[in-house]
Each structure stands twice: as C-alpha cells, then as structure tokens.
C-alpha cells in the first residue's frame, strides 16, 4: 500500500441541525474494507427521534433559506468546491477504504464532484422566471420559479461522493433544504460532504445526514408531511417501491435507476480504439457503474478483431487493493456480489457461452473477481437481460442496423448507450433509434456537471446536471395582477 502506508479511516457520525452526532448509545453498523474484509469503522444509526430532529431542522431552515439570495447560495457552493479540492486526497482515501475502487478513480470522483458544486454555484444565479404579455391593458402576468421545500435524498455506494453531491448542490442551489441518507456500507464520503458544507458556512439545518436500515429510513422520511420532494439513485425494484409510495402522497421524484447499457460497434468503426475504450469503461470501478457498457454488440466483420483487443485489455488489468498505485481494478464492494458473479458465469456456461478471459473469483482475502470476457451467449441469458453490475463483459455478433436496434431496445432499461462508427449517417440513425436517456457516440461523454444525466423506461425519470438540474427542485407559480 504505497499511497497510504498507515490507512486511517475517518470518524463517522450523523449530522443534524449543524451538529455532528456520534454513536452515544445508538445502534452501530460495522463498515468493512472490501479488499481485506476487515472492520474499519462503526457507523451510528439514527433513532426515530433523530429522524424527527432532522426533519424539523430542515423544515425550520427552509423558512429562511428559500428566501436567501442566489448570490449567497453561490458563494457557499463555491467555497465548498474549493474545500473539496483541498481535501480530495483525504476524501478519496476514505472512498478506497470503504468502497474499494482504486485511489486514482476515487480521487477523480471527488474532483468531478467539486466541479458539480462549482457549476451549480454559477447556474443557481440563473434561475429565471418570465413575463407573459397580457391580453388586457393594466394586467401584469408573471411566472415565478420557487424552491419546492424540504427534500429527502437517498444515494448509492458505487459512487458515494459523486451521487450524493449531485443531489446536495442542486437542492441547496435551488433554495431547498434536505435530509440525506447515504450508503451505510460506504459512508465516509458523505460525512466528508457534510463537514465541507459546515465549514463553507451553510446555515444549520439546510443539510442533514442520517443513517439506518434503508427500507425503514426511506419509508419514514417519504411519509413525513415535511418532505415535498424525493431524489433516489439505486436499483429498479427499490426505485419503483419508493416512487409508488411518493406517488401515493403526490410528492415529486427524481429517479436515477439501473441500466443495462448496449454498446454497438459497427464494421466501419475504429475497432481497436472502440475495444480499448469500452474495455476500460467496462472494468472501471469493477463494473459497478450504472452506465457501464454491459452488452457488447459487434458487427460480424469487426467481431474477431474487436474481441482480441478487448480480451487483451481485460487480461492485462492488475487487480488488487485500491491503495496500490499499480491497481487498475479493485474488489467488488460486497462479499455477496462474488457468488452473484459466479451465478452469471454458470448460467452463461449452461447456455453455450464461452469464457475467453477470467471467469472466476480471485482466491485470498477480499471480494475480488477476475475481469471476464464471455462470448456466444444468447439474448435470453441472464448476462444479456440482467445488469451484472460487475466485471463481466458479454460480447456478441450482429448482422445489420435494424437487427441491432431491435436487440438493443428489447429490454425495459434505458439509461446509457454507446455506439462506434465512422459513418455520420449511422451515427445520426443510431442516436435517433436507441431508447436511452444518454447516447455516447465514439467516446464517453456523459456525467459532466453541465450535461443532463438521467434515463427513460425502467431506468427512471428526471435529470441531474445541466440546466435541467434544478427542474425537480422548483415549483412554477403563475401570478396575474390587474393594476
């Protein structure tokens, strides 16, 4: 471990009404290092009284924060961005320790999150209404955009900093307050976010951080009459449950759910570049990425060359502790994911699939599974119909445009998609035909602060990032006045 010779994991706490709260007799949860299985921290769970206190603090803070100047909000967000960059090595180390991704990836995640804070600092000053010309002399017609209220946000473990900061800066920038429940198994980054905003001067109660049993906390917060908006990033089944509950209470939602992203490589593409880029994207974060290219469709004439190059990249990845500077892929975040990967391999094998690279767990401590490439899997196999959320890449052939569009669109998911071609005609046609919220052609160009991030179909609704980022946190009020 040459990045950190003596890893020190940060203290964990709740954050309610501007105060960091330690366990003090509360239920605690072990936090594990997925590279070793060792317990590295203890996370306090919020009691029912803690949840009520967080809701009350957010409600109280909203009464003043929603009237704050966008210039004030912008200054706080900008201070936070500076602090994130300053503390990035420390925050990234915590992410590597509790989530497992390589340190370089964790550091990039934090630096990208700082960009989100900075971008929202600028964009929140541009939340405009409009004047509508009246039909009658003496009438003034205004459209106002106002913060929706107290928000409840639920964020995942695979990008613990990035997914949380997107929701925090959008809510704060819009003039909302929020109660945030981050991932209990990778909590250090979210605690760091709370510390940064406290140090940046965010008023008490605007951001509150709670932990607990996910189903219990989410149910309690969503049902609270204080909460007016819900933002969730996670699995499709859980997202549907939360959306149904929120819908029954007429509460607005932003849902960024799972995907199973098709990657389409046409014969006329730069095959070597496409294979190298897709392989590196696929094994980033050990494949635990909601927008990971997870179904590779390669046109027949390019198939063999693509497969050889992709397999070469996969077999050359160094797998190990994320604190080792040579590591290119870390462990799976949870021990239970290792047998899940094995079950995908078993299903593919029973259906005639062929393992070209990897295909098995890596023995020893930690939750390590080899980068894997599988060919000849049928479209109804688990690998082609269920997101593996791990380092397994199925690669299959296709003949023509209509066939690959039909196969790519056959699943209920619609988050991200990828296509590689030198033909502008193919590029335009595939961009129009693919059912996805985000389409990447010849590169990876999504998840930037200035671009909208979100899906369609079972992959959710609403966007984070881009000028659309505040839409879920604002209500529209029409005012008509006769003078």
Question: What tags apply to this protein structure?
Answer:
Aldehyde Dehydrogenase, Chain A, domain 2, Aldehyde Dehydrogenase, Chain A, domain 1, single chain, disordered N terminus, 6-stranded mixed β-sheet, about 475 residues, about 20% strand, globular, 2 domains, alpha/beta, 13 helices
Q: What's the level 1 CATH class of the largest domain?
A: Alpha Beta
Shape descriptor reads: globular
Number of strands: 20
Ranges where pLDDT stays below 50 over 5 or more residues in a row are: 1-6
* Rg over C-alpha atoms, rounded to the nearest angstrom: 23 Å
Mean pLDDT: 97
CATH architecture of the largest domain: 3-Layer(aba) Sandwich
Sheet/helix structural class? alpha/beta
Q: Estimate percent helicity.
A: 25-40%
Write the CATH homologous superfamily of the largest domain. Answer: Aldehyde Dehydrogenase, Chain A, domain 1
Query: What fraction strand?
Result: 15-25%
What is the CATH topology classification name of the largest domain?
Aldehyde Dehydrogenase, Chain A, domain 1
Number of helices: 13
Description:
The structure is a single chain. The protein folds into two domains: 14-257 and 458-480, Aldehyde Dehydrogenase, Chain A, domain 1, CATH 3.40.605.10; 261-449, Aldehyde Dehydrogenase, Chain A, domain 2 (3-Layer(aba) Sandwich), CATH 3.40.309.10. 37% of the residues lie in helices and 21% in strands. The chain has 13 helices and 20 strands. The chain has a seven-stranded mixed sheet, sandwiched between helices. It is globular, with a radius of gyration of 23 Å. The termini are far apart. The relative contact order is 0.14. Residues 1-6 have low confidence and may be disordered.
């Amino acid at each position: 471990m040459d990045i950190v010779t003596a890893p020190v994991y940060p203290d964990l706490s709740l954050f309610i009404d501007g105060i960091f709260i330690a366990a003090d007799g509360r239920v605690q949860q072990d936090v594990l290092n997925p590279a070793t299985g060792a317990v590295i921290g203890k996370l306090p769970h919020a009691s029912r009284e803690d949840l009520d206190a967080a809701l009350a603090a957010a409600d109280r803070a909203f009464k003043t924060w929603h009237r704050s100047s966008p210039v004030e909000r912008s200054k706080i967000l900008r201070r936070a961005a500076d602090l994130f960059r300053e503390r990035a090595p420390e925050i990234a180390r915590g992410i590597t320790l509790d989530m497992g991704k390589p340190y370089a990836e964790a550091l990039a995640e934090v630096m990208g999150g700082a960009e989100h804070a900075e971008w929202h600092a600028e964009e929140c000053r541009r939340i405009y209404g409009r004047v509508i010309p009246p039909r009658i002399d003496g009438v003034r017609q205004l459209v106002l955009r106002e913060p929706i209220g107290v928000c409840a946000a639920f964020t995942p473990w695979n990008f613990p900093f990035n997914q949380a900061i997107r929701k925090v800066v959008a809510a704060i920038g819009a003039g909302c307050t929020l109660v945030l429940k981050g991932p209990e198994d990778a909590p250090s980054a979210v605690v760091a976010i709370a510390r940064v905003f406290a140090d940046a001067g965010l008023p008490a109660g605007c951001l509150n951080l709670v932990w607990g049993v996910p189903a219990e906390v989410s149910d309690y917060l969503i049902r609270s009459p204080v909460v007016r908006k819900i933002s969730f990033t996670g699995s499709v089944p859980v997202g549907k449950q939360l959306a149904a509950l929120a819908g029954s209470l007429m509460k607005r939602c932003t849902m960024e759910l799972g995907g199973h992203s098709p990657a389409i490589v046409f014969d006329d593409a730069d095959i070597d570049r496409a294979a190298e880029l897709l392989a590196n994207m696929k094994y980033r974060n050990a494949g635990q990425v909601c927008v990971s290219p997870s179904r590779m469709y390669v046109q027949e004439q390019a198939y063999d060359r693509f497969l050889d190059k992709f397999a070469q990249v996969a077999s050359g990845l160094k797998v190990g502790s994320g604190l080792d500077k040579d590591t290119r892929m870390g462990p799976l975040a949870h021990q239970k994911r290792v047998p899940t990967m094995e079950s995908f391999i078993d299903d593919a094998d029973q259906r005639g699939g062929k393992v070209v690279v990897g295909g098995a767990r890596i023995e020893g401590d930690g939750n390590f599974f080899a980068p894997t490439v599988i060919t000849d899997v049928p479209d109804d196999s688990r690998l082609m119909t269920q997101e593996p959320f791990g380092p397994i890449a199925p690669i299959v052939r296709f003949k023509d445009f209509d066939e690959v569009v039909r196969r790519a669109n056959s699943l209920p998911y619609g988050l991200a998609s990828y296509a590689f071609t030198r033909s502008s005609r193919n590029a335009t046609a595939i961009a129009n035909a693919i059912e996805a919220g985000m389409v990447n052609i010849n590169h990876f160009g999504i998840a930037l602060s200035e671009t909208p991030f979100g899906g369609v179909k079972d992959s959710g609704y609403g966007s984070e990032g881009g000028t659309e980022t505040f839409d879920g946190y604002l209500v529209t009020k029409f005012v008509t006045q006769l003078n």
